[in-house]
Amino acid sequence: MKIILPLLALGLLSTLFLISRNVDPTKNIPITNIDLEQRADDLGATNPSFAGMTNRGDRVSVRAEQAKPDARDPEQLLAEVVEARLQLVSGTVIDITSNHAEMNQGEFTANLQGDVNVVTTNGYDLNTERLNARLDRLYAETPGPVHGSAPVGTFSAGRMVLDTDQKTGAAHLLFTDGVKLLYTPQTPEE
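and the corresponding structure tokens:
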């Protein structure tokens, strides 16, 4: 074994070098077609992320494909293709995606716009065009219509608010302004 295993390893190693491709050092290295001067002049970040906690201990994380400060207000960040995750102390996870977001660092607010999707681990899948959220406490609202599915069926409403119940401290969703629910009875499992 002391002779066979090292010889076998040498055979495998030499096979790697014999089979590998030849690299032509004279060929050009492929690079992307971006304007480096424009990129250097622009403020911003690619694939930024941030994480924190609300005042009651819920974990918040936000990622984007691109973010840059607003030219008019340096505390305002403009982000593209945003993914946010709220991990509540109760164990529920809320995933939020949107096309755009405006985040105000001083006020701890985020306004998500364009094809906003909210999915919770307890069975809600919501869609809206705009969602205004707080980053320092559990609060989010849709100033316009929201529709989607819930554990009891499909629904639409004129407005939704995610907030903390003052008595129990638990998170709850409140749908208002013309709620329509199509109830789907659950079939008992055998």
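(Above: one complete record from the training split.) The mean pLDDT is 87.
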